[in-house]
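# step 3/5: fold
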Amino acid sequence: MKRLILLSIVAMLLYIGCDRAKTVLFRSYITIYYYSKNIQLKITDDGNIAIYKKYTSEDVNIKTASYSFKSKGEEKKKYDELCKIHNDMSYNQKRSYIVAPLWGRCSAIDFREIDVISDKDFDSEHPAGTSLKDIVRFVSISPKKFIDSGYKETFNWRRNKPKIFKKESMISSMFHEETENYFPINGLLKDIGKNEMQMLPEDTHGILFFDKEPTAEKEHTLTVTIDIGERKKLVRTITKVFK
């Protein structure tokens, strides 16, 4: 009897869920862009540096916004503009959702360039105050290649997951729905820029890894400068103790 009641409840919930589901023709794969310049740094449990969006701030002047396919007025214009910028205009798929789509969510802020310097000599090739772009890499994910391929090319994470992704447990928080539509970003800061760092995850935008350890001092105060375009740069500092 209990089993029958349980099955009846499950069936009812499925019926309610289906009854409330909405089917919409989505022109773009990205369904919502999140905008916030409250981007901060933190040392992860694995000792790397996370670039992430902080949800709370004492600075009320920091603008936050979201632009989605359901937006109206100026917000909808901004959403359409972002879709056009990212060549995401011909998805044309009918898809169903209940409350809100769980796929296609990303940051509205693309990174153009990232630089890192230390207040101390890192090694003989990197004295204090010089760029560390040739030994620091940016790791993240993005649906850019999926979108650029006409929504056809996907990535097999089970077979091809880069080894570096296994060295940081926080990376798992970047993924939501449809992981196969997201491709890895993994490159030294000197080699990547605006073409690679687009449509980043909305919460943890990416992780900075060091390919080398310092040869002398182990504690370094690092200055990270993130170029977000329109002549705007975010400058953040963080102290990292190398083991």
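# step 4/5: annotate
Residues 1-18 have pLDDT under 50 and may be disordered.
# step 5/5: archive (pending)
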